Amino acid sequence: MSDKRVLIVDDEEDLTWTISKHLSRDKDKFELIAVNSAMAALDVLAQVPVNLVITDIRMPEISGLDLLLKIKENYPQTKVVIMTAYGSSEIQEEANKRGCFKYIEKPFEIQDLRQLILDILQEKKGFEGKISDFQLTDLIQLLCLGRQTNSIHFEKDGSHGAIYFDEGDIVHAEVDQIEGEEAFYEILSWEGGAFNLQKGEKAPKETIFKSWQNLLLEGLRRLDELRARTSHVDDKIPEAQKQLILALENHLRNKGLEVLALLDQTGFVVASAVQPEQKDKWSVSDIVPFISKLLSAVEENGQEFGFGKSEEVFVQYGEGIIQLARVADSNYFLASLGNNEMNISLLRLENKKLFKQLVPIIKKL
Domain limits of the chain? Predict the structure, then answer.
């Protein structure tokens, strides 16, 4: 008898019986235990060491998600594979590559399951991890795959966020003043923080209509892009300023934008970003005096005419565009410089989204 032990958990007795029958010939490679509830699985785990748990995600009483979380918390060396009927090849590839769990899609061939078990048991360095290592993307995938209706609430550095699920679909997300897809991507970018799962809590509104698979793949793509950009940001600068820089760099994706600078009311640059291919053309230190002078003139003219505080100024030249816009009701201004491909109407809409991100960060300065 092998010293390796595999635990199969599924509430379908026919399935566990079939798996047990077909894998019994591998008793020299691993001992197989099959149970039909998560509670029974926890009883087994409390009595004997288990190398690998393969569990369905949708089960009564205790779900596969709850079982996974308990395993990660109490048995961090135990590896986990999720069985689900709601997967997709792209998400499966991402989960297997990135996460601390793997999954196999139903219906599957017994031979495929057997090979997966053998491969995992032979891995010298597995994908197991402590609950603190459990990735947010893993949790989101599991809630979607398990067709859960609930919400996850997050706290990080004074900011509160929430993602709402309805029968496995992501239908709403919010963080500070942002809602919808952008709020989802913002939460996904958080490193650290605390989360709380609210079972059965329904979304107050529906702001997300994209499939969870596409939403998560786009979020993972943005995460990769964010990490690539963050590699050049000086770790010694304050966290709030780093967040401002990253938000501006992300905003540079708008067509035609070449330079962004966030200034306070004195004209001092708090954060800036330049398109990589335009860094030889633009130097923020060179253009700041001109921008500051323009800002000062606009403010003075507003007072002279009795118009009050300036909100926006837009100047179009033969070869480019300059826009100065107040960030919400703050004393900060966003300076945008670009070529004539810059769509000012679209930029105004995108600025509103950006300002919702900038305001809570500015308050931390």
Answer: 5-133, 148-228, 234-362
